[in-house]
Amino acid sequence: MNEKLQSLKIIHIALCVGVTLAYFFLGDLQTLEFLNVPKIDSTSFIYLLIGFCAMFLGNMVYNQRLKTVDPKSKFEERIAPYMTASIIRWAILEGAAFLILFLKKEFLVVGLFLIVYMIFTRPSSEGMKRDFAAVSK
């Protein structure tokens, strides 16, 4: 069990480091220009919506995937669905962060927020137990 969870932790670290490096090199974070709040109008509102939709959709898909697991199954049998659900959630967050990076660099703060959120969704056995308990209620 720990080997599978360890491999999921490695995947998580690789995804987080990859998107962080992309933001560091492509997003011009060295100049701190990204902290300037851009003017938000009707055409740029969609870029703010990308971040919020990614968080909402990622969590929704994650919880739906966890609900499909039999609550009476062993802890070891729950790891595979947990891994799948976690990778899907991270892919949605990473995709949204890259969309913001490549389409509208003025909203890098939203992408950085997605990266920080993705870092906080790290896998752990305690988190796995907590999430399965939450969806089984």
Condensed summary:
This protein is an all-alpha fold and 137 residues long. It is 71% helix and 0% strand.
Structure description:
With 137 residues, this protein is mainly alpha-helical. The chain has one domain (2-132). The chain has 5 helices and no strands. It has helices at 2-26, 45-67, 79-103, 108-120, 125-135. The longest helix has 25 residues, at 2-26. The protein is elongated and about 50 Å long. The protein starts with a helix and ends with a helix. The mean pLDDT is 88.
Estimate the helix proportion, in percent. Answer: over 70%
How would you characterize the largest beta sheet? none
Proportion of beta-strand residues: under 5%
The chain-level mean pLDDT equals 88
> What spatial form do the alpha-carbon principal axes imply?
elongated
Number of domains: 1
Look at the helices and sheets and give the structural class: mainly alpha
> Count of DSSP helices?
5
* Low-confidence blocks of residues: none
